[in-house]
Amino acid sequence: MLQRASWFWMPACAGMTALVGCTQPAPPPAPETKAEAPKPVEYYGTNEPFAADAVYFVLTDRFVNGDKTNDHRDQGKGAALHTFDRPVPGAPKGKSDNVGYLGGDFRGLLDNAEYIKDLGFGAVWLTPIIDQPDEAFTGGDPVKWGGMWTDRGKTGYHGYWGVNFYKLDEHLPSKNLDFRGLTKGLKSHGLKTVLDIVQNHGSPAYTMPKDQPKYGEIYDKDGKLIADHMNLAPGKLDPSNPLNAFYNTKPGLAQLSDINENDPRVLPYFLGAYEQWIGQGADAFRIDTIPWMPHSYWHQFVTKIRDKHPGFFMFGEAFDYDANKIAEQTWPENAGVSVLDFPLQKAFGEAFGKPRAGFEAIDKALYLTNGPYANPYDLMTFYDNHDMARLDATDAGFIDANNALFTLRGIPVVYYGSETGFERGTAEHTGNRNYYGQDRIDAAADSPIYRQLRRIANLRAQTPALQRGLQVNVEMQGDHAAFYRVLQQGKSAQIALVLLNKGDAPAQFSVRASLQPGAWKSVFAGTAVNVAAGGTLDATVAPHDVAVYVLDAPVTEPALKTELDRAMSRARRHVAD
């Protein structure tokens, strides 16, 4: 019975091949598998959120005096020491420059926040806000018209002579308007705050006939003296003295106190100071003189800041026209930050200033593929600033420069006053940093440069492809440029075609290369151009003008796809694991 019972327990037909009529059960049907739809190919230049915001750069003391009660006109006793209004000697008739404070402050900046926003900017970069010496400097060589590295008679109006990096300079805030209030006020106008930070050096430190208060000194957040150069030349500093050890024993820039990054107190000091200003609303940092301290120092600083503030945007000033040198700052194994694009700045001066070189000069400096940068689309692009001669161009040259700046790859930066051609062609100590003032702001709309800048800057602010899109050039020759900016990522699918004419005559463009069929919107004309497959887009661009056509659609044109695939794979520097 046990044997019989065990026969009944066997699965149907198992080992019973001789049993008539026994069949195997049909296997269960395989589940239907649906082929996954291929993910759309992504095309983008950068994913950096800050790329949406063009930057207006103000030297705060020279922008607008909104509050005269913080001018401190009586600061520094006597002709050699007073700090307010110190004209540079030797100025030609009708010209001026000044190395004293002239009154610009947070109030003047905030009062004009809507002016900056309306002009098309999304961020304001302001010069360092930290405490400066309270007298004019008596060491070094005397300031003179057109002089370089001459600081005698100069004050810290510019903010780069830090004494206490935790304390606001008294010339900037007003009653009920400190730095926190400024950043909050700017945000209410839709503007981010870029804070200029310094760690390479403090104030001038030696060559004074008599040691001056604060010069060559650094104080902590409690007001305690932690470093003192003691008016000694760098080679005479005593590294065993903690007050001297904060500084290097080799000279740096001019007579500035050169900070010793190897002193273990230095990094914590600056991390604490700049964390404080982030806590009060700074949205990004511009890092002054970044190459003067080693990559290892900046890697530590940037890493620690981003550990607490993931993705915090920073860009450095590496004043060098060699792309391979400045690119090192962008690599993740070094600082891993963006940089100001000095090679492109030089090309802008050649193309839009008096030389009037062709767009070939611009093309060579873009490094769209196989370049040295971690990502060229993250670079800060500009044509002048406070440390060099302003762009020496006609009104038409400024208009051309702005049309290119706000459509080419990169994040645009415009120095205060350039919207009206203010002090064009002037260098430091010949007018580059002169006072702008409310009257000029109120009259800015009369300038053709202002009107055209406002038009192109606001277009960029409204066009994602111009902010973050991959760039593919069609033509960069002579006075004419044509290129695509393409953004295809997530819910964004936009192709922009930019046509630039910096010539004195109307330019005829007939674009066929990689042109996708569709209804292209001419954004300035407000009309549409229907392009058939294999067709052309024909346009006439007025002298010193720009035309932008936008197609809100995914990329389907095979030739454009090929160009974009190539650009996408070769745009960014790939770092080996």
From TrEMBL:
Pfam families cross-referenced by the UniProt entry: Alpha-amylase
Highest taxon, organism lineage: Bacteria
GO terms (BP aspect): carbohydrate metabolic process
Occurrences of domain Glycosyl hydrolase family 13 catalytic (ranges): 57-460
Region annotation Disordered: where it falls in the sequence: 70-96
Cofactor(s) listed: Ca(2+)
One annotated GO molecular function: transferase activity
Keywords carried by this UniProt record: Metal-binding, Signal, Transferase
Protein name as catalogued: Cyclomaltodextrin glucanotransferase
Lineage of the organism: Bacteria, Pseudomonadati, Pseudomonadota, Gammaproteobacteria, Lysobacterales
